[in-house]
Each structure stands twice: as C-alpha cells, then as structure tokens.
Amino acid sequence: MSIKIFLADDHKIVRDGLRSLLEKQPDMEVVAEAEDGRTTVRQVQKLLPDVVIMDISMHDLNGIEATRQIIAKSPRIKVLALSMHSDKRFIAGILSAGASGYLIKDSTFKELINAIRAVVSDQIYLSPRIAGIVTEDYVNYLTATDSSASSILTVREREILQLLAEGKTTKQVASQLHVSVKTIETHRHRIMDKLGIYSIAELTKYAVREGLTSL
C-alpha cells in the first residue's frame, strides 16, 4: 500500500520538485498540494493522507496553526515540517502542535525519504542540526526545572541519605563519617524538610529512584 502524501508549501517550485521526486518512489503517492495553511487543513480533512509535508511560513494560516488543527481533528495523520527556519521558536512551536518530524530545506532528498518512512512508523524524526537544537533546549529546560537530589541536597546530605537508605542507624552513620550522632540527626531532619519526606521507608524509596543506592 502506498504512503499517501500531501504537500503544503507556498512556493510552487518547491511543491513541483517534491512531487517529481516523491512520485519516483514505488511506495509513495502525492495525493494533493496546497499553498496556504487554511486550504491545507480543509483538503487534508477530506483526503486523510498518511503524511503532510508542512512548510511553516505560509500565508492565511501558518504551518504551526495548520498542524495544530489537523492533529486535533485527525491524530493519526503525521505532519513532517520542512522549513528554511532553524530557530528554536519555530521548532518548538510545530513540535508542540503535534508534528512528528522536522527537516531543514537544505536536507538531502534521501533524508526526506527516511523521515517520511520514520514518521509513518510512529517515530519522531529530526534532522541532525535540529536534533542538536532540541537536545540543547531540553537540557536547558531540565537544568532550569531540576528537582533531583543533586540539586536539592548537599554532597554531605546525599552521602548521609544513601547510608540511611542502606539500613545504617544514625549511630553507625555518625561513626562511619567521624561526626557526632547529633550532627547526623541534624542532617537527617534537614534532608527530610528539604524533600518533604518524613519516614526512613520513604527516604529509602527516594534514594533508589534518584540512583543514590541500588537497594
């Protein structure tokens, strides 16, 4: 069965080029095309293609909003963004709208074919340059919203939490770290207050989840 493809781009020369190349693939068929987002949404709802190759910068209704409307009505349709933009705002915008992939227009035709096959197989496809931007943005997001033990607790507190989670008593921890029992008790109360956890059993579960111990 052929993969049915819809082309959405405001440049006819781009649509013509894509159609010519795609129709040479034995398992792909271009069912229709449009030059603006609103026509794209309307036609896609009628034709129900497998994949929409979507430009972002189109008049009347841009590719991001068109993608959002298509996915809202037909979640099974895959949208593959093909854009000249590598700005993270455009990438985040269309991916959050429901697109399954993002390619820059200077990508090779072979990469486009790979991307189409990937999204049809329910995979996410990002061209290498885009993948780097998305990964960097995600890492920055995680850093900004980090609530892991490494960001909440001090080195000493993590050390004490591990020992407590591994079943050592307050006295044993104090002896091993060469400090007083009172010092360990103070640390334990501080750890509990920071984490909002007030039992050793729950502290142990937390330590395991955070990778502080393999118990």
From TrEMBL:
Residue span(s) of domain HTH luxR-type: 146-211
Which residues does the record list as 4-aspartylphosphate (modified residue)? D55
* Response regulatory domain mapped to chain residues: 4-120
What are its GO biological-process terms?
Answer: phosphorelay signal transduction system; regulation of DNA-templated transcription
What GO terms are given for molecular function? DNA binding
Q: Keywords for this entry?
A: DNA-binding, Phosphoprotein, Transcription, Transcription regulation
| SUPFAM superfamilies the UniProt entry points to | C-terminal effector domain of the bipartite response regulators, CheY-like
Please give the CDD domains that the UniProt record associates with this protein.
LuxR_C_like, REC_NarL-like
Pfam families named among the record's database cross-references = GerE, Response_reg
- Name-wise, this protein is DNA-binding response regulator
Which species is listed as the source?
Answer: Candidatus Scalindua rubra
